[in-house]
Design goal:
By secondary structure, the chain is α/β, with parallel strands linked by helices. The chain is 32% helix and 28% strand. The chain starts with a strand and ends in a 12-residue tail after the last helix. Bound molecules: adenosine-5'-triphosphate and magnesium ion. The site of magnesium ion has 4 residues, from α1.
Length: 240
């Protein structure tokens, strides 16, 4: 179980010196064996939350607990050791590193051709065409997103933080992507997404709004709320 208690994150505007709140009093819990989809408008703080969960940013205040242990102060590396795996909204390019090498680095051991094929075919790529390619600007946006997801699968783990994994992936491949998430169903999977098809895979939906206030609940309940209130006046709705 991953829990956030009163997590706040603010930054200081370099020019005006004014404090800007990005996350305010976020209280959420993510259970094992549950897929949660975080959705909401651009700039509402979804990626910031993912980076805080992975340890790239530290909350200004509040605590994060993993299986009851306070992990607020621990590093990205320590979180990775505990089984946290991230796929960024904008994947990092590694000039000079081949897909083959990236997958081996991700899983921490040599991979057989079969193992390589398994990771790449899960994201709809034929290993033969990709293992010797460099993870650089020559890959298309969608290919890069798929390879990043393949690296996350190769690494494995207990908590998967996937920031817009569908971004740049053609609609035709959505069902394959959904299968990837379904395979992770015994883990804690937190996906940021704007796509209804991805939301349909969720057990829980977390909704951010522009005032940084959020509500969260079971998928069915959240879909019913959205249908009843399409203008999305969410500010007084609390996690159920
Ligand atoms: N270090 C920072 N300094 C200043 N502003 C920041 C910083 N980090 C994030 N922000 C701002 O915080 C807000 C939330 O950013 P974030 O990337 O979390 O949004 P998001 O919900 O993921 O948006 P999108 O749907 O576009 O990906 C944005 O307005 C962003 O400009
Ligand atoms: Mg984002």
């Amino acid at each position: 179980m991953l829990e956030l208690k009163n997590v706040c994150y603010s930054v200081k505007d370099e020019q005006t010196g004014k404090k800007q709140d990005i996350l305010k009093n976020v209280n959420l819990s993510f259970r094992d064996g549950e897929i949660s989809v975080i959705t909401g408008p651009n700039g509402s703080g979804k990626s910031t939350l993912i980076k805080i969960l992975m340890g790239f940013e530290k909350p200004t205040s509040g605590r994060i607990y993993f299986n009851g242990e306070d992990i607020t102060g621990i590093s990205v590396t320590e979180r990775a050791r505990k089984g946290f795996t991230i796929a960024f909204q904008q994947p990092v390019r590694f000039k000079g590193i081949t897909v083959n090498k990236l997958l081996e680095l991700a899983c921490g051991k040599k991979l057989t051709t079969e193992g390589m094929c398994e990771c790449l075919s899960a994201v709809g790529l034929c290993a033969r065409n990709y293992i010797d390619r460099s993870v650089d600007g020559t890959l298309s946006g969608g290919e890069l997103k798929r390879i990043e997801l393949a690296a996350a699968i190769a690494k494995g783990g207990e908590v998967f933080l996937l920031d817009e994994p569908e971004a740049g992936i053609d609609l035709w491949s959505f069902e394959d992507l959904v299968k990837v998430f379904e395979k992770l169903h015994d883990k804690t999977v937190i996906i940021v997404s704007h796509q209804q098809r991805i939301m349909e895979t969720a057990d829980k939906i977390v909704l951010f709004d522009n005032d940084k206030l959020i509500c969260a609940g079971r998928k069915e309940e959240m879909f019913a709320k959205i249908a009843k209130q399409p203008s999305l006046c969410w500010r007084n709705i609390k996690e159920s």
